[in-house]
UniProtKB/TrEMBL annotation:
<dbReference type="InterPro" id="IPR025979">
    <property type="entry name" value="ChrR-like_cupin_dom"/>
</dbReference>
<feature type="domain" description="ChrR-like cupin">
    <location>
        <begin position="21"/>
        <end position="93"/>
    </location>
</feature>
<dbReference type="InterPro" id="IPR014710">
    <property type="entry name" value="RmlC-like_jellyroll"/>
</dbReference>
<dbReference type="InterPro" id="IPR011051">
    <property type="entry name" value="RmlC_Cupin_sf"/>
</dbReference>
<dbReference type="Pfam" id="PF12973">
    <property type="entry name" value="Cupin_7"/>
</dbReference>
<protein>
    <recommendedName>
        <fullName>ChrR-like cupin domain-containing protein</fullName>
    </recommendedName>
</protein>
């Protein structure tokens, strides 16, 4: 006699935001210059939530060829998925391109809260970032901060 298997579905009815879903078609994504927290040249589009508000958010960043982000940290964990191009990331307080291998599309990176890291881009690249806001960036060397708050 076969035993019936019952899977208990989690009760999401009380969780805000689960009463509906959100669809963002690729043709509806509009990239804007900025954000001001990153060196000039990058473009971004927020797909869900807001990096400046409390709660989860999803954002895409489009980097031009030859782009770099100096060593920095974030106040929350960061999840990065490479969608196209190649994403080079290394850890530490000194930028060292040799320690930032280029990851292919489909690759994933989890960056722990407060971990110093840096980014290098060789070819135009698109990544998706999932994190919890409010999100911020603190440069290891304040002189690297494009906001000029050194």
């Amino acid at each position: 006699m076969a035993a019936a298997i019952t899977l208990a579905a989690p009760a999401y009815a009380d969780h805000p935001g689960t009463a509906h879903h959100k669809v963002v078609a690729v043709e509806d994504i509009t990239f804007k210059p900025g954000p001001a927290t990153l060196p000039p040249g990058v473009q971004f589009a927020v797909l869900h939530g807001s990096p400046s508000e409390e709660g989860p958010f999803v954002m895409r960043l489009k980097f031009p060829a030859g782009y770099a982000i100096p060593p920095h940290t974030h106040p929350e964990e960061e999840h990065v998925t490479v969608l196209s191009g190649g994403f080079g990331i290394g850890t530490g307080e000194q930028f060292d391109a040799a320690k930032a291998p280029i990851l292919k599309p489909g690759s994933f990176v989890q960056i722990s809260t407060g971990m110093a890291h840096f980014v290098r881009i060789e070819d135009e690249t698109l990544v998706q970032i999932n994190a919890i806001g409010p999100f911020g960036i603190t440069y290891v060397d304040p002189a690297d901060d494009p906001r000029g708050t050194n």
